[in-house]
Amino acid sequence: MFPEIPEPLIVATVIAFLSGWIVAKIGSFISSRLRARKEDPRDARIRSLEADVRVAQSAGEKVKARLDEATGELTEARKTIKERDTALGRQTSTVEQLRDDLRGSVKKTRELREELTERATENARSEGRLREVQTELSVVQASTDLLATGVLDYLGTDGDEDDVQIFKAGG
Fold first, then answer.
1. What residues have CB less than 8 Å from 168, skipping those under 6 apart?
2. Is 165 helix (H, G, I), strand (E, B) or coil?
3. What is the pLDDT of residues 120-136, one digit of tens each?
4. DSSP string covering 99-155, please?
5. How far apart are CA 52 and CA 24, in angstroms?
6. pLDDT, tens digit (0-9, with 9 covering 90-100), for 107-121
7. Which of 34, 35, 86, 152 could connect to 146 by a Cys-Cys bridge, CB 3.0–4.6 Å?
8. What is the DSSP letter of 157?
9. How far, rounded to the nearest angstrom, does the alpha carbon of residue 81 sit from its chain's CA centroid?
10. Do the beta carbons of residue 153 and residue 164 sit within 8 Å?
11. What are phi and psi of 96, to 5 degrees?
12. Are 126 and 140 in contact (CB under 8 A)?
């Protein structure tokens, strides 16, 4: 069925096939070497840009993380500021209330001082009157003692009460 092919023809065909395959491999090897040497600058630029994109993406992620952290800190700071504003408002109202109380206390103190001054003045006047009364009382007491001892005698004969005669004791 198959025609008989001479043996030298088969060997020549196999040698031709193998030599073609070896030549193709060598050609492929040389052309890949030439391509590696003569690389397209656009490919290098693309690889460089891809590397820059990866670096920028990682830097962007770091910046985003810092932004998120700063946003959290800002939120905390705002809460703290609100709390401090609230506390400051309460303290301000407390200070105003204390000022009003202090003003009222100062006013009452002044009124009490004025009243105390008036009472002290009245007390001084009363002491002065008391001394006058004590002086009059001591004069009356002395007169009574003199009358009782007989040193002082009112003249009742003329009916003139202004005439007073003083007797010396023993004489």
1. 151
2. strand
3. 999 999 999 999 999 99
4. HHHHHHHHHHHHHHHHHHHHHHHHHHHHHHHHHHHHHHHHHHHHHHHHHHHTSEEE-
5. 39
6. 999 999 999 999 999
7. 152
8. S
9. 9
10. yes
11. -65, -40
12. no
Beta pairing partners, 152: 166
Q: From the CA atom positions of the chain, what is the Rg in Å?
A: 67
User: How is residue 37 written in tokens?
Assistant: 């040497």
Q: Please say whether the beta carbons of 164 and 152 come within 8 A.
A: yes
Rounded CA-CA distance 38/43 in Å is 11
| Token pair belonging to 113 | 């001082």
> DSSP character for 164?
E
Task: Give me the pLDDT at residue 41, please.
Answer: 77
Distances 113 to 108, 124, 138 between C-alpha atoms, Å: 8, 16, 36
| Alpha carbons 31 and 40: distance in angstroms, whole number | 14
Q: What is the largest CA-CA distance in the chain?
A: 209
* Percent composition of the chain: helix, strand, coil (DSSP 3-state, to 5): 80, 5, 15
